[in-house]
Amino acid sequence: MFGIFKKKTKAEKLQEKYNKLMKQWHELSSTNRAESDKKYTEANAILEQIENLKKI
């Protein structure tokens, strides 16, 4: 019930952004290969940030 007041950590925000980009990548993969590749590159950059946060 009180979970609505809980603030998300930076890692949680990045994970949501990563999931959103991967979903877009998958949808574009069959229609627009260039845009699909851009989304995949963005998602990988965010994944690296998430991994760096876990190391700390």
How would you sum up this structure, described in words?
The protein is an all-alpha fold and about 55 residues long. The chain has one domain. It contains 2 helices and no strands. It has helices at about 10-30, 35-55. The mean pLDDT is about 90. This is Lacal_2735 family protein. Keywords: Coiled coil. InterPro entries: DUF6435.
Comma- or semicolon-separated keywords:
75% helix, Lacal_2735 family protein, coiled coil
How would you sum up this structure in a few lines?
This is Lacal_2735 family protein. Helix 1 runs antiparallel to helix 2 (33-55).
Radius of gyration (Å)? 14 Å
Q: Could you estimate the helical fraction of the residues in percent? A: over 70%
Written as H for each helix and E for each strand, in order along the chain, the element string is HH
Tally of alpha and pi helices: 2
- Average pLDDT confidence is 92
Strand content: under 5%
Give the CA-CA distance, first to last residue. 31 Å
Shape annotation: flat
Low-confidence region ranges: none
Question: How many distinct beta strands?
Answer: 0
Question: What does the main sheet amount to?
Answer: none
Structural class: mainly alpha
Number of domains: 1
Coiled coil: 4-31
Keywords: Coiled coil
InterPro entries: DUF6435
Protein name: Lacal_2735 family protein
